[in-house]
Design goal:
Glutaredoxin, single chain, about 20% helix, about 240 residues, alpha+beta
Length: about 240
């Protein structure tokens, strides 16, 4: 079985209530929300507990919780309606950057740095706590028409700015495959994912047009600034469109 990528995080934090509390250090109070990405599939029988965990994390203000559906389980009998090939590609890029031999579900990636089996709530809690202790590298100001990035120490290769549009909630009556006969629910389902621009350490403004996303009924937008090759998250912000 795969375990938390950073071995220092494996030890459980005594008394940590993942779903009810957030970190309380001064650094945690001022840093950007922690990006939590769940790679999941309706064709994966071990994913529903991780989907439920992600739904609880979605209620936290200190976390940007995203459900990213991959398409490589579609062949076993049920085609996930939310799966995107681009999200499978993103997960495979993580496999390279996190030195994994393969991809798997359910996988949670925290701030591009820690990789956890998505149903292991204590490991997820520990990874979030570790990420909160690290200050953000760039301030991200997100509005309906622009993304504004502050000055900071960018990595030599620069950083990529990613845009992810997501829906609030979906339920699916799965009729075939490993989850046949189950009504499954998903929070913050990513429906669109693309590269928005780059950041090199200087103050940067990137135009944003969310009219189409709003018209399509998207619930929110997340912007993630990340080292090249899908490495560490340097800064992030989310905005609700409702």
């Amino acid at each position: 079985m795969l375990t938390l990528h950073k071995t220092a995080v494996l030890a459980a934090v005594p008394g940590l209530l993942l779903l009810l509390t957030a970190g309380s250090s001064a650094t945690a109070e001022t840093r950007a929300p922690v990006v939590v990405e769940l790679y999941t599939s309706q064709g994966c029988s071990s994913c529903p507990p991780a989907d439920a965990l992600l739904a609880q994390l979605a209620d936290r203000d200190d976390v940007i919780a995203l459900s990213l559906h991959v398409d490589y389980w579609d062949y076993i009998g049920w085609e996930d309606p939310f799966a995107l090939a681009s999200l499978t590609k993103r997960q495979r890029a993580y496999a390279r950057s996190l030195d994994r031999r393969t991809v798997y579900t359910p996988q949670i990636v925290v701030d591009g740095t820690y990789d956890v089996i998505g149903s292991r709530s204590r490991s997820v809690a520990n990874a979030i706590a570790m990420a909160r202790e690290r200050p953000s590298d760039v301030a991200v100001d997100l509005s309906e028409d622009a993304v504004r990035l502050g000055e900071g120490a960018a990595p030599p290769e620069g950083a990529t700015v990613w845009l992810l549009l997501y829906d609030r909630w979906h339920e699916t009556d799965v009729r075939r495959g490993e989850n046949a006969g189950r009504l499954l629910g998903y929070a913050h389902v990513v429906r669109d994912y693309r590269r928005l621009g780059t950041w090199s350490g200087r103050s940067t403004e990137l135009s944003l047009d969310l009219a189409a996303a709003r018209a399509a009924g998207r619930f929110g937008v997340a912007v993630v600034v990340q080292t090249e090759g899908l490495g560490r998250v340097l800064g992030a912000a989310a905005l609700r469109l409702e």
